[in-house]
Amino acid sequence: MELHWLSHLPDSIDSSISIDALTGFGNMFAMLYAAKKGLDEVLATPGTLQALMLLEIDDFAAISYGLGEEAGNELQIRVAAQLNALVQASAKPDFQGRVFRLAAGEFALLIKHSSCLELRQWTAELRQHLAASIDFPLTHPLKLRISAACYPSCAVSLGHLLAYTHLFMGKSKDDDHESLACPGSPEHQNTQFLSIELHNNATALIESFSEKILDTAFQLGEARQMAFTDPMTQLPNQRAARYCLQELLTEATKIAAPLSLMLVDGDNLGDYNERFGYAAGNEMIYWLGQSLRRLVPSTSFVARWLSGDEFLVFCPGTDNRACMRLAEDLCAQLQRESHELLIPITVSVGIATYPQDGTTSEQLLAAIETANKLAKQSGRNRVVAF
């Protein structure tokens, strides 16, 4: 029986919100989307089941507190990697799966299979494999809580599948073993009792997933911040600069206001690296970036540009003449303040202004590149307008 299982994140869900920043596997959003898509695929493939399996590291909060956050994160990375390795090693036409991390110490597997008995046996092997393969300085052996349910054998919708797995995760905690809501399993015998429990479990399920959504949103916020921040200077990076420039151009066009750009490029990085080493050169780059942010008007935007000690400064509402004065003041101020460094530095600045020097971001960026190059060629430590 041939199963078509997605090996990558679906094209129709934005990868920027569907990847867990810690492990690199899919997050809760990716799991929900893949589960929904998997239900449709199962219905189109007679004899196929889809299992949603939840796994929790037992008492992870205490483990993470005892080991420290960094070690706790490393433990989660190793567990995710081992889960994926076992899934890949077990893959065959009628047994294929994917790994997701839902929250701290919590993971999910989506497994397409054709035999609940085989799934139960594989789950027992998974527990043993993880206990033996995770080499970590724990005071107690690694222990997992596991629950699972299958569609369409015992769940009739995605919500039903989630409710079953959440309910049986609670039973797993109480009974100290994996709880699989498969037909024929002890957990699945009293369907009337389960219906009442599922109804009573609704509030707990909503609370659990609300916490996971908030946790995922927090992770996405951190990931977005990292994606738009230069790690060396802690300033916005070129990706953030391009985005901001487009926004500023849209606003300048709407209100018919000028927008000036500066490309500030240090003149002394080569000397720094040669005389004092790259670490000192990096410190100089950091100093220059922070000084620029401090010296420009609060309405300006400062970002590190392509490489080395290149920085962009966007000045909304500033015409060419005012930008020229600001750039010249910056040159003089930076040269004076740089005496606190190992050697004084100077900067060369190229400026351009919307709309006279260009009406698109690419035109304006090309203009300040040209102006900055002329400033360098003219002797450095000067400002040149396009």
CATH architecture term of the largest domain: 2-Layer Sandwich
What is the radius of gyration?
29 Å
CATH superfamily of the largest domain: Reverse transcriptase/Diguanylate cyclase domain
Low-confidence stretches: 1-12
The biggest beta sheet is recorded as: 5 strands, mixed
Annotated CATH topology of the largest domain: Alpha-Beta Plaits
> What is the residue-averaged pLDDT?
82
Number of helices: 12
Terminal Cα span: 66 Å
The number of strands is: 10
The arrangement of helices and strands along the chain is HEHHEEHEHEHHHEHHEEHEHE
List the defining traits of the structure above.
386 residues, alpha+beta, Alpha-Beta Plaits, 2 domains, five-stranded mixed sheet, 10 strands, 51% helix, elongated, disordered N terminus
Question: What this model shows, in words?
Answer:
The protein has 386 residues and is of the alpha+beta class. The chain folds into two domains: 209 residues, Reverse transcriptase/Diguanylate cyclase domain (Alpha-Beta Plaits, 2-Layer Sandwich), CATH 3.30.70.270; 148 residues, 2-Layer Sandwich (Alpha-Beta Plaits), CATH 3.30.70.270. It is built from twelve helices and ten strands. The strands form two sheets. It has a five-stranded mixed beta sheet, with helices on both faces. A five-stranded mixed beta sheet has the order 7-8-6-9-10, sandwiched between helices. Helix 12 links the parallel strand 9 and strand 10. Helix 9 runs antiparallel to helix 10. The longest helix is centred in the middle third of the chain and has 26 residues. The radius of gyration is 29 Å and the shape is elongated. The N terminus is likely disordered.
